[in-house]
Amino acid sequence: MSRSYYIAGNWKMHNTRAQSAELAQALVTELKDGKHKYLVAPTFSSIETVSAIVEGTNIRLGAQNCAAEEQGAHTGEVSVLQLKDLGVQTIILGHSERRHTYKEDDVLINKKVKLALKHGFEVILCIGELLEEREAGKVEEVCERQTVKGLEGVDASDLGNVVIAYEPVWAIGTGKTATPEDAEVVHAFVRKVIACLYGDNAASKMIIQYGGSVKADNAAQLMAMENIDGALVGGASLKVDTFVPIAKFKS
Ligand code: PGA
User: Fold this and answer.
1) 48-92 pLDDT, tens per residue?
2) Could you tell me if 164 and 147 are in contact, meaning their C-beta atoms sit under 8 angstroms apart?
3) Would you name the residues annotated as active-site residues?
4) Secondary structure of residue 79 in the 3-state scheme
5) Structural domains in the chain?
6) Is there an atom of ligand 1 within 6 Å of 211 CB?
7) Nearest atom, ligand 1, residue 235 CA
8) What is the pLDDT of residues 96-130, one digit of tens each?
9) What percent of the chain is helix, strand and coil (3-state, nearest 5)?
10) Measured from the CB, is residue 234 less than 6 Å from ligand 1?
11) 172 CA distance to ligand 1 centroid (A)?
């Protein structure tokens, strides 16, 4: 099965507009001959700036979240309509920082997933277990629940716009990466969950990224695994020198 690799940078709450512009500009130059699919997800306040820079290039524009409602009295939230207006193509949903710091549950995340898909966005649905859940032997239970509930009510015809990112929470921003073998076990399991929901063909096409302390020196080993189709990169996506080698890893 020839799934293409998809490397995404999640800039989280970093960078002013000027810093974002500088980084985006450099990535456009460095990745223009890159062979994989690419995305950057700047903080909301930098999206318009970065949009003008990546438009028409091989780098997609992402947002890190959206509101569960289209518009209205939702102080502090950002709507899919506003993201579309800025040229955003992809929305990251269910990131562990949204789930655990901002207490987003599966029901809310599912609402956002369906709204984003309805408006034609690609969605990167993040899933992954906490350290205590791993230690309690609940990796599969948690990943299955987050996948099934995250995709509840999503029609098979929209699945081409869904990417899953497996991000073990204990590996995010900690410097601890899951070993390629450990990650592969979960990726293969998640693909099985997708097969149960949507059939083998849909499952074999699903892009499943790994996230959690991906660096230049572990990217190729992770991506060599059969069911790992790319990376969602946090810390290492903030510098050209650390992101480009991941984005241009040799398969
Ligand atoms: P990290 O973050 O690469 O800094 O561990 C990954 C993520 O949160 O998507």
Assistant:
1) 999 999 999 999 999 999 999 999 999 999 999 999 999 999 999
2) yes
3) 95, 167
4) coil
5) 6-247 (3.20.20.70)
6) yes
7) 4
8) 999 999 999 999 999 999 999 999 999 999 999 99
9) 50, 15, 35
10) yes
11) 5
